[in-house]
């Protein structure tokens, strides 16, 4: 399913008016991941597709959205992964995948490192994305920035960080880099296309989205 503009993808986790206001004007298309259809209904959004195994959708909603429901019955992947397998878009803004059930949240974070670096998940507190091969962000000095490895990560070059990443080997069971901070208004990473997640306060969403070209 190809889109030529950013997609708002809604999951079954927490979705608030505050987060939706944060992404207002930053997407053109709306897709619901199974139970995310409840948030679509609650906020009066108009989805172009509903994707998932459909185990969280009421019969009434299934009937109402039958024409745009894409049921994927297999149980070897989450609804989030099913959506990412179907959506081809320059940018995906995911809401409702963080801050709810911990197992669902961990599954969403694990899925991020298996996908192209064009997905940003947004919660009430933070945003998270997988850095591309070369990351270039403009942030205020002193901004909190964390890097969490989802596997073995090494040989990353960085500029603008209080605690540089050069020469370090990171992994979930050895070393991580949380609560790092910026010491310049430009942060860059090179060779960052690895199983790594970048986590920023949500007020830096606009700065993060500036790195996308669409």
Would you tell me the structural class of the helices and strands? alpha/beta
CATH names the topology of the largest domain as Rossmann fold
Q: What's the total number of strands? A: 15
Radius of gyration: 17 Å
What's the structural domain tally? 2
Biggest β-sheet: strands ordered side by side in the sheet: 4-3-2-1-5-6-7-15-9-13
| Outline | elongated
Helix content range of the residues, please?
10-25%
Mean pLDDT: 92
CATH class value of the largest domain: Alpha Beta
Strand and helix order = EHEHEHEHEHEEEEEEEEEEH
CATH architecture of the largest domain: 3-Layer(aba) Sandwich
In short:
This protein has 214 residues and is of the alpha/beta class. The chain has two domains: 7-124, Thiamin pyrophosphokinase, catalytic domain (Rossmann fold, 3-Layer(aba) Sandwich); 134-209, Thiamin pyrophosphokinase, thiamin-binding domain (Jelly Rolls), CATH 2.60.120. It has six helices and 15 strands.
């Amino acid at each position: 399913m190809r889109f030529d503009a950013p997609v708002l993808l809604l999951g079954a986790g927490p979705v608030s008016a505050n987060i939706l206001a944060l992404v207002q004007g930053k997407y053109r298309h709306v897709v619901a991941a199974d139970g995310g259809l409840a948030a679509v209904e609650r906020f009066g959004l108009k989805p172009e597709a509903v994707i998932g195994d459909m185990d969280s959708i009421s019969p009434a909603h299934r009937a109402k959205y039958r024409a745009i429901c894409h049921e994927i019955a297999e149980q070897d992947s989450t609804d989030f992964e099913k959506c990412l397998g179907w959506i081809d878009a320059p940018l995906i803004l995911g809401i409702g995948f963080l801050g709810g059930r911990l197992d669902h949240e961990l599954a969403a974070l694990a899925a991020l490192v298996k996908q192209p670096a064009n997905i940003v998940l947004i919660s009430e507190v933070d945003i998270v994305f997988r850095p591309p091969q070369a990351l270039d962000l403009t942030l205020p000095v002193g901004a909190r920035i964390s890097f969490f490895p989802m596997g073995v990560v090494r040989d990353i070059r960085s500029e603008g960080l209080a605690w540089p990443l050069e020469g370090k080997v990171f992994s979930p069971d050895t070393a991580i880099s949380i609560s790092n901070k910026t010491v310049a208004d430009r942060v860059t990473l090179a060779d960052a296309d690895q199983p790594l997640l970048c986590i920023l306060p949500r007020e830096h969403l606009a700065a993060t989205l500036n790195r996308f070209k669409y």
